[in-house]
Amino acid sequence: MLNRSHTFVRRQERGVVMIVALIVLVALILGALALTKSVFTSNLIAGNLSFQKAATNSADVGVENAIAWIELQNGRAGTCSPGTKILSCDHKSDGYLAAVQNPQEGESWTDFWERIIVPTNAVKTLSSDSAGNTSAYVIQRMCSAAGDSSSTGIICSTSPNSSGGSCTSGSSCDTQGINLYSVSQVYYRITVRVLGPNNTVSFVQAMVAM
To answer: What is the pTM of this model?
Structure first.
């Protein structure tokens, strides 16, 4: 009877050890799966951030191209209707709009781009770069309507101007105490959208005054 009792106890102990071992094994498997998923998610996030950064950097090319175009056309006479300057009216094939439009309240730039910018056919698309990013830009003159910025009824966002003279309190002065001379300039908003690998979309904006 004593031997049988010891045998029964040993079998119970073996059964308990096996159950504990199975529980530990399941826990290890679940932990390994969770770790694998965590590493995969981290790599995915890092990859997406890398694509996003590359797309944002590619937008610089679009901004530079847009600024170069504005500089080339600034002040040049043209046969615009209305207006007497090239920048007084739309040049959609060059990605230029003489009047500004803004997204509605709560509307993203992605939605605004598809709803307003694309239908105007005023998007200038550049060639894709070596990383597979494609930049497209639109230039909007910060004016209420097309026409010469000095025309009556057209309101434009402009930089402050100064005609020089003696230095007064609160004004911008140089070391000799003379007002700095500046000419009022019209603001232009450049919006660049970059489409990259892995469905990456990036928007970059720049404001210039000329």
So the answer is: 0.69
